[in-house]
Amino acid sequence: GGWISLVFERMRAFVWCLLLTIALSTSSSALEGQEEESRQADATKMSVKDLKAALKEYGLKCKACSDKGEFVDMLNAARAEEARKQVGGSCRPREGCEQGCDLCSSQSSQAQGVCGAMSFCEWAAAAPAAEKEKGSRGAPATPKQTA
């Protein structure tokens, strides 16, 4: 029964991966919710002047905003979008992987914490969007020189 033990080993790895996914998604969702509440609370405590300055850091200006709540909403949306942009990457098998390699590319392994928990997988971070854009234009970015 060599193939039977292989099947059971793969099933055990899959169940382990599934349990990790559930545990990590539950805890990360709770943490994300707490972080979001904290961020929103911080924005509501800011003055309109500070809110405008924070929006300017994101390259935004709210000309149609008539009250503080609209500035807060716009800042929270900008922060959320920035956070979404920073998350990226994928799980892949480590070089020389011999067993369980197909689990690395499964949907349940596409959370960084789950991927890192499997010794035969590694997390490949996605290149930042700004870097992709620079690369697609062909010319490398040159630093500004000051006299």
TrEMBL record:
<feature type="signal peptide">
    <location>
        <begin position="1"/>
        <end position="30"/>
    </location>
</feature>
<dbReference type="InterPro" id="IPR036361">
    <property type="entry name" value="SAP_dom_sf"/>
</dbReference>
<keyword id="KW-0732">Signal</keyword>
<feature type="domain" description="ARMET C-terminal">
    <location>
        <begin position="42"/>
        <end position="76"/>
    </location>
</feature>
<dbReference type="InterPro" id="IPR019345">
    <property type="entry name" value="ARMET_C"/>
</dbReference>
<protein>
    <recommendedName>
        <fullName>ARMET C-terminal domain-containing protein</fullName>
    </recommendedName>
</protein>
<dbReference type="Pfam" id="PF10208">
    <property type="entry name" value="ARMET_C"/>
</dbReference>
